[in-house]
Amino acid sequence: MVLMGMVLIAIFADNLAPYDPNAINAAYARGRPQPPTAEHWFGTDNYGRDYLSRALMGVRVSLFVGVAAVLFQLVIGVSVGAISGYFGGWVDNLLMRITDVFLSIPGFFLLLIVSGIFGGTLLTLVLLIGALNWMTVARLLRAEFLSLKEREFMVAARCIGVPAWRQVIHHLLPNALAPIIVAATLSVPYAILTESALSFLGRGVPPPHASLGTMLEGAQQWLRTAWWMWVVPGAIISLIVLSFNFVGDGLRDALDPQLHR
Amino acid sequence: MGRYVTRRLIQAVPLLVAISIIVFAIIEAAPGDAAQMYIDPDKGSDPQYLEQVRESLGLNRPVYVRYWAWLSRTLQGDLGFSFRTRRPVSLEIGDRLPNTLLLGGVSLLMSVVIAIPIGIISALKRYSLLDYVLSTLSLVGISVPVFWVALLLLQVFAIRLNWLPGVGMHSVREQYEGWAAVVDVIRHTILPATVLSLAQTASWSRYQRSALLEVLGQDYIRTARAKGLREWRVIGVHALRNALIPTITLIGLSVPSIVTGAFITETIFGWPGMGRLGVDAINGRDYPIIMAVTMLSALLIVLGNLLADIAYAWADPRIRYD
Predict the structure, then answer these.
(1) Which residues of A touch B282 (CB under 8 A)?
(2) What is the per-residue pLDDT across B109-151, written as a single tens digit (0 to 9) for each?
(3) Are A238 and B283 in contact (CB < 8 Å)?
(4) Is A105 part of the contact surface with chain B (CB cutoff 8 Å)?
(5) ipTM over 0.90
(6) What distances in angstroms separate CA B243 from CA A104, A169, B205, B320, one per listed residue?
């Protein structure tokens, strides 16, 4: 429910926002954040930008980064896992060693380094978060493939000469879909939290764009005086992440046959 | 077991080399000239002077030469000098690492002490109101951003109530001696350690709950009950020992998230640890420090994984490595 609401907000952020989220109203703010009023429900920041409008855009940015990063990590993870699990042998060995390397990389620090040195755009952020988090999917899919390959229907498929790509796409992938969907759903919150943490450290979404993380970064210096500046974005991030975790948990319970005993 | 550990340690070597090549390559691809950061503004952009700076930082040699030089020096224990402070990297790290280990250790301890009982209670009182409340709290715990909780606690306990210090590791205004100094550090540890342990506590209690539930459905538990053992013995001895196995493994596997948490938490609380050193090094493009912090984090992660596997074999006699 909440998730649906958030997705709708992300899509229609433009129409919902009562003000231009980047419009500076210096006369109204007078250099200080203004508390919530009837015109500005969530108040404004110290530039007089309407906080509700910025939060709405922030939801869009955060959801976009989260979902896009997970889609990208699915592309890598599914390819690596499928190739590894289907072909086995030295290909599998090589790919799994590469996976081990990525699993041992301090991913968040590497993200900080890359975005710190090269400066980030929204797209590089998506690609980076995806490129550092595909390992779980790859391993899951490989394990699924290894066990599926030995099942009778796959032996039969090989015997009647079904081509390799057809075996993978028509027979193996659909059967391995459930754990992948669960893993993907549960990685969206991780990607969103990573993005907001990066933005919070000033290394994420570049200004003047509003992401929920950058809003929190800006709020740091107003901790004492302007509670709405840090309560609003933080609460929204928590709500989004919480709803993804709920959906992921629910999907796992529904799709995992081991739980129906 | 000894042979297994040796083999795993040998396998870790190419892993760490691969990571170091990746990070070195990234730093290499960075736009701009690191030497620019260290020129004396008076001498300006005199090309001869610039060349001299590059020479002194070793930046004028080809990449592979520099990588090889870095690798062989590192293996001999020489991590080079910080670009910014001009102190040896090993000293910079040596100053900070104990602080990070202290923070990480305290938060780990807090997580274990809180998460395992919560998980056990939830599992034993399954589907009760208490279980529902605890499970929801755990889900909320893994969903809130770490840095937001940090801001929240800072606001409430450090700023509004003024109960606990929110910045640094020692009080700046007073000089404490002996016991008072220890208490001072403990007071400074409470907030950052709480923040660092929160996500861990939440996720471990979830795992502990499901692990115990799974064990309670096993045949040997039914056997133990059928033998007429007292309930506390069935739970405390037969079930719990088996249900702790996955949690023990988790502790080793959570090293990466503790390392990540350290970067964020230390930055917010001004904790003089390795995480903050790393973040500062990125801001100042202090490459020797960046390399050292990355490699040290990777090493911690590899060791954590190894520790998880060893603990797993130790706790579960059915598993044998050789």
Answers:
(1) 112-113, 116-117, 203
(2) 898 899 888 988 888 888 888 888 888 888 888 888 888 888 8
(3) no
(4) yes
(5) no
(6) 27, 39, 12, 19
